[in-house]
Known about the structure:
Strand order of the largest sheet: 2-1-3-8-7-4-5-6
Order of helices and strands: EHHEHEHEHHEHEHHEHEH
Helix content: 25-40%
Strand content: 15-25%
Bound molecules: manganese (II) ion
Amino acid sequence: xxxxxxxxxxxxxxxxxxxxxxxxxxxxxxxxxxxxxxxxxxxxxxxxxxxxxxxxxxxxxxxxxxxxxxxxxxxxxxxxxxxxxxxxxxxxxxxxxxxxxxxxxxxxxxxxxxxxxxxxxxxxxxxxxxxxxxxxxxxxxxxxxxxxxxxxxxxxxxxxxxxxxxxxxxxxxxxxxxxxxxxxxxxxxxxxxxxxxxxxxxxxxxxxxxxxxxxxxxxxxxxxxxxxxxxxxxxxxxxxxxxxxxxxxxxxxxxxxxxxxxxxxxxxxxxxxxxxxxxxxxxxxxxxxxxx
Length: 292
Ligand SMILES: [Mn+2]
């Protein structure tokens, strides 16, 4: 990234069962490496962290998340309008509602490519979700499916078209969300295909796929895509994931050829309460360095 990079933090965890990832942005902002990074890269501009407001008028998690992710969407849209790139830190993955709604609106509602790296599909609607957790719904909502409070962030239209989306690293999902993605024709790279073919060729192919009909794209990174050995600090760990070191290496190799088209990156679901010896925090650092 060579332009100004606006950094946003979304300290919301109520989209998940375990709310600890609300503390993710603060842990990152306070880390010594984050200060050093700002000294080395004066083009990095951290913005104040967004905290959820608990007002009497906001009676449900849907309303609280709608309000907070709308603020994240406005910040992200402003960054994109100003030709800045962005790095958004969650928070649970309801952050993605704000990040990609904002990126879409800031990019003058041009079709947006999206690479979604995750152990899960996050493509439930309130009807298919067994848990009712909103962090399992953002991808469906970005494509226009689900509760209007999630699908109408900043504007009522769908923010991501299924043809401009790829999921990578999937290994845990329910039938309802898998059915939706299949019905919509979304390309899903399950972990088995990545293990068989290697991450880098799959990442290159996924980028080419999401850029067939778009000029600009973004990358959503759920830390639970990474193997729990390398990233224990997440809310919903799933065994047998991506190798952290290989992931950062491939991300760096692939993204450097697409810098002009990269709008921004979000890193979500980092839960400091479950981290071990700062392994996950340091992997977040390595991912940030890999995309810079
Ligand atoms: Mn996720």
